[in-house]
């Protein structure tokens, strides 16, 4: 076992709202903890994937109090001390700072993989090897390593990274993925900008996965997000003391929302991008769920929920509460998600628009539907 592996920790970032999976995903039961596809949640699938390279005792999850309850329900064997509960959602940068505050106390030599919960991965073994490769680079060269994915179409829901030269940094454990310097990062683009990115050939999708040593993460925070860095130290001092919960609540009451993309990656002087070749997509909305493994025919026909009757209808994705009968007549390519108290109907390909619907529902004050 080499140095990086012994100190390798995973932090599953699972405190997002997952509004793209409304109406199944709700404040009290966020989508990442629901069996949105088969009978397993994204959280459980992610956990199993990470366990291929990091032992469970070094896997942490940062989530809401509702998320924490669901973790203990779904994974009773998951150590409760590894569940870090955020009082509010403040984005991925505070989430990373909170995790750093705790891990700093446990292991000052920690190498931290910051991992979103809502990813679909085709080759779990290569994913694990890529994290180990990234960890080796992070240790050997004191870099913030981001994982980029070679884009095959102009997706507008992902951030992008523009790469420069191949970084030419050696390490003991390699994958076939190339390592590049990061030139610029771009937030989610509009369609014509995404087209330009794809044509240029030097833009990669930003997977939102980051790997860094504790030292690098702290120095990146110190130089790019100095207030958050001070808050991280303050929380860290309180870890394992009786007043820890109060300190964390205090800090979160004044923290500004910030993302790792904007807060750290965009301002980093040490960032490199390792190409991830493991087959990846984000699971933001129902269309993403329908396209994940097994293929759509499998999802749409083979596992059609009981109670769904289709006449002259094809390629519809339907989820209904147990015991409810739904009939579809003469329709194709629909998404119908029924939770009893709320109903989504949209055309396949349009489900990303559900976030706009959720915004309207929120503005209209219909909290019971959120
Ligand atoms: N604990 C915690 N987790 C959070 C929070 N906010 C988001 N997360 C988690 O962080 C991950 C990503 O958050 P999103 O807010 O869903 O980001 P995104 O819109 O998907 O964009 C990010 O990911 C894309 C790829 O999936 C990237 O392309 C994009 O650049 C960015 O990094 C998800 O697992 C989400 O649950 C928070 O406040 N707290």
UniProtKB/TrEMBL annotation:
One of its GO terms (molecular function) is mannose-1-phosphate guanylyltransferase (GTP) activity. Residues 10-285 form the Nucleotidyl transferase domain. One of its GO terms (biological process) is GDP-mannose biosynthetic process. Keywords: Transferase. Gene3D superfamilies: Spore Coat Polysaccharide Biosynthesis Protein SpsA, Chain A (3.90.550.10). The keyword Transferase applies. Coiled coil: none annotated. The keyword Magnesium does not apply. Residues 308-348 form the MannoseP isomerase/GMP-like beta-helix domain. It comes from the Bacteria. This is Mannose-1-phosphate guanyltransferase.
């Amino acid at each position: 076992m080499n140095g990086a592996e012994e100190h390798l920790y995973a932090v599953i970032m699972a405190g997002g709202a997952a509004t793209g999976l409304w109406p199944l995903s709700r404040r009290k039961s966020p989508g990442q903890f629901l069996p949105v596809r088969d009978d397993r949640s994204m959280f459980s699938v992610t956990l199993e994937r990470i366990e291929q390279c990091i032992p469970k005792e070094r896997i942490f999850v940062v989530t809401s109090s509702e998320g924490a309850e669901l973790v203990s329900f779904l994974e009773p064997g998951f150590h409760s001390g590894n569940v870090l509960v955020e009082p509010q959602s403040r984005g991925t940068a505070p989430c990373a700072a909170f995790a750093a505050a705790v891990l700093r106390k446990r292991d000052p030599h920690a190498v931290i993989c910051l991992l979103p919960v809502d990813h679909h991965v085709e080759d779990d073994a290569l994913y694990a090897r890529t994290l180990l490769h990234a960890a080796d680079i992070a240790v050997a060269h004191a870099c913030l390593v981001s994982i980029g994915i070679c884009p095959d179409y102009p997706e507008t829901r992902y951030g992008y990274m523009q790469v420069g030269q191949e970084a030419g940094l050696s390490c003991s454990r390699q994958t076939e993925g190339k390592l590049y310097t990061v030139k610029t990062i771009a937030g989610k683009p509009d369609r014509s900008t995404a087209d330009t990115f794809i044509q240029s050939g030097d833009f990669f999708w930003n997977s939102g996965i980051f790997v860094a040593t504790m030292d690098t993460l702290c120095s990146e925070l110190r130089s790019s997000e100095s207030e958050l860095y001070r808050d991280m130290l303050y929380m860290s001092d309180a870890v394992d003391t009786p007043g820890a919960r109060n300190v964390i609540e205090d800090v979160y009451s004044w923290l500004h929302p910030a993302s790792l993309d904007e807060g750290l990656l965009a301002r980093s002087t040490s960032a490199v991008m390792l190409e991830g070749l493991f087959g990846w997509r984000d699971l933001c909305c129902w269309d993403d769920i329908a396209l994940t493994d097994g293929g759509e025919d499998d999802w749409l026909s083979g596992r059609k929920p009981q109670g769904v009757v289709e006449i002259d209808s094809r390629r519809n994705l339907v989820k209904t509460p147990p015991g409810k009968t739904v009939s579809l007549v003469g329709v194709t390519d629909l998404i119908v998600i029924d939770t009893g108290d709320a109903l989504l109907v949209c055309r396949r390909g349009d489900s990303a628009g559900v976030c706009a619907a959720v915004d309207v529902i929120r503005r209209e004050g219909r909290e019971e539907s959120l």
